[in-house]
Amino acid sequence: MSISPAKLRLFVLGLFSVLLVGCSSLPTELEASSEPVITDYQEWLNQLPDAKDVRLGGVIAKVTNLKDKSRVEVVNMPISSSGKPDLDAEPSGRFVAYVDGYVEPLSFAEGRLVTFVGQSAGSEDGKIGEFPYTFPVMDADNQRLWQITERVIVNDFAPTYYSCRSLHCRSFHTMPRQGRVVQDLE
What InterPro entries does UniProt report for this protein, alphabetically (predicted)? Predict the structure, then answer.
């Protein structure tokens, strides 16, 4: 039994599509109860107070545990289709997410990256330092705390020479190696 080249191409294309979708899929804890979900901060501000479901993320600025819920103030950063905050983007405002119950301030520490999903709940007036600020508010259904991972990529394009004597060889690099550190979220 032989497979035609057209069927083989179709199979490979389908397999590639499944792998690509699997790599960039949204974590289950960030799925909203209904679609469409607002994922853009400015769009959320423009739709207040009529906005429904929102999914936003960024850097935690402040955590306050109240009697029956916790208030998490977040410096907004754009998020990708997989819900990850963009490390290279400039922050664009702040929002407040209310989480039912107690959250551990060490887990939700200042500077930690987070993404929330929940329902829009209007806005509240507050302050950032002494500056008055109006925060858009969400009642969070779920969240994802992100870990920054780093890896080093070495660009080894320099000529390399090998000096061999008998069975022992050593390599000599004539130019310094170059590399870069790549950050990713998990």
Answer: OMP_Slp
